[in-house]
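Weekly modeling sync, notes
Attendees: AB, CL, MP (scribe)

Item 1: holo prediction request
CL wants a bound-state model with pyridoxal-5'-phosphate before deciding which constructs to order. AB pointed out that an apo prediction alone won't tell us much about the pocket. Agreed to run with the ligand included and paste results into these notes for async review.

Input as submitted:
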Amino acid sequence: MNETDIHKELFEHTKELADHYLLNTYSRYNVAFRYGVNELLFDFDNKQYIDFHCGVAVTNLGHADPDIIEVVRSQADKLFHTSNLFYSEEAAKLAELLILNSFPGKVFLTNSGTEAIEGAFKLARKYATSKSVVDPIILSLEKSFHGRSVSGMSLTGQDKIRKGYGELLKGIEFIEPNNDEALVAAFERYQGRIVALIEEPILGESGIIPLSNSFLTLSRELTAENDALLIFDEIQTGIGRTGTLFAFETMGFSPDAMTLAKGLGSGFPIGALIVGEKYQDLFTQGSHGSTFGGNHLAAAIAYETIRIIQTREILNNVNLCSDIAFTRLNDMKERYPVISEVRGKGLHIGVVLKVPSRPIAEACLAAGLVVNATADNVIRIMPPLTISSDFLNQGLDIFESVLKQN
Ligand code: PLP
């Protein structure tokens, strides 16, 4: 057998094992990647792909960043895990860095986005209890996505995510995104009962739908007037994806709490709930916890991730590459009627198509470009924040060549 045949066999074997032993919860593409270098991925045949996917907005620093590898190695040499029952230099330093770069408050470290959302949900309930609110309401948005646990699904405004699990948690009402009147009406209808409003500044899973400035400002005003928490779910928009470390930075105000995950660990699982100082004492000792959340290794990697973003001028690259991408994609929109809209911010881009997006993503993959198909007809373009303009253009060339055929 030559090398190509060996690799083919390895891949086929991997597929057989996965199909046989892993629960069938994902609609997988017909590829497995073996290694990556910054914006490039390589499969079992050593075929090269440009990565516009980043493991769903996770590997924001690309693959195999030397400083991330170094911190993994040096921390692994020292200590992986003790537990949150002991002080941890790495967790403490990460919490300080997050607070200094967001808003005054305190941090709870988790293993995933869903767990950060769980913390936010519990925070809202604690707040309701502290104010003795009868029948408290949490507002969320239609088309939102906040994770797959029961509280995550309950806060998620998409039937396809919620269905099949029986009755979900009560006390959650959904508002149409960017409908200012509906938001005002909800605060009037549930006067005194609304304890929190949770929003993704750009709705990611439902196809990169940015919230308008007026809706965001109104959200801040109404929550402040009604003594409710404004919670931003920045699990997808955070960690530099939209051109600032956190998307809220360009809004002129901060939320009362914020959830993070995805890019925070550069691919290593970690999430965070940041709670503003007015609310930071709602959680008391023993009222919330996690075995793994923010262990030494995870926290060291997350700290290094943020340090790299701040010291290597990576956000400048996001804004530069964002201009290139939006210019080219808007130009494609003029020339290819299959595109109905290009939307988003920074390197968090949605291309809305008039056709289903999955076959387009498959054709891109065959041509050496990894993109994400979401919300039936949207291609999500989320390259690493460190992508070179050369590879960005090459990836866009591949995307264009696929569109030409559709
Ligand atoms: N919130 C948002 C906005 C997300 O995009 C996601 C994941 O896609 C989650 C929550 C859930 O995060 P995780 O998959 O890490 O549990």
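Recorded for review: Residues 314-335 form the longest helix (22 residues).
Action items: CL to compare against the apo run; MP to circulate these notes.
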